[in-house]
Amino acid sequence: MHLFTFFLLAALVSACGQSWIKTPTLDEFGQDDSMDLLAINELVTKWHQASAMANEEAFFGAMAPDAVYLGTDPGERWLRDELRDWSKDAFNRPSAWSFASSQRECFLSPGRDVAWFHELLATDMGPCRGSGVLTKSNNGWFISHYNLSFVLINEKVPAFKALAQGE
Predict the structure, then answer these.
(1) How far apart are CA 108 and CA 117, in angstroms?
(2) For residues 70 and 149, what is the distance between their CA atoms, to the nearest angstrom?
(3) Which residues, 6 or more positions from 97, have their beta carbon under 8 angstroms from its beta carbon?
(4) Of 79, 76, 75, nearest to 60 (Cα)?
(5) How many domains does one find in the chain?
(6) Which in 92, 107, 138, 153 has the greatest CB count within 10 A?
(7) pLDDT, tens digit, 9 for 90 and up, residues 123-147
(8) Burial of 146 from C-beta contacts in 10 A (0-12 / 13-18 / 19+)
């Protein structure tokens, strides 16, 4: 049965067009973590789709009430409801913002109630990396922390430093 679950998970992830690096395994208690990993992947994918479709309810509904979102600007640190207020105009457009994950890796805590992930993203700002923490409640998984950052090739750092310093 575990082999079937693994192949089902692999097929679903492939259908989403994403590279899932973490291989579902049995933990030390013999529990299969693939269903949690599938739920987490689906939640984060749908969260990104909600912003691309300006679905404010789905986007913020995927976040824990005390979730923190860190944007690319040094001043962009919001609690969920602060982000909702700040992004009100964006969610009134056909698309708030569009992030498409090309690769995501996810990990579960031993207690299977906390997960963390990182992903590579194609965005309208260029390539970015997102990382996050999810917590599991009686109502399922919720994003508790998300950090968005730019991805920069090391050889471009000098030019970036000059730009950042206003030169």
Answers:
(1) 9
(2) 8
(3) 51, 52, 90, 123, 124
(4) 79
(5) 1
(6) 107
(7) 999 999 999 999 999 999 999 999 9
(8) buried
Distance between CA 91 and CA 140 in Å, rounded?
A: 25
Q: Which domain holds residue 42?
A: 2-164
Which pLDDT tens digit goes with each residue over 93-129?
Answer: 999 999 999 999 999 999 999 999 999 999 999 999 9
Position 6, amino acid = F
Q: One-letter amino acid identity for 110?
A: P
Quote the pTM value.
Answer: 0.80
Alpha-carbon separation of residue 1 from 7, 41, 134, 135 (angstroms): 10, 21, 27, 27
Output the six-digit token pair for 164. 């950042």
Q: Which amino acid is at 108?
A: L
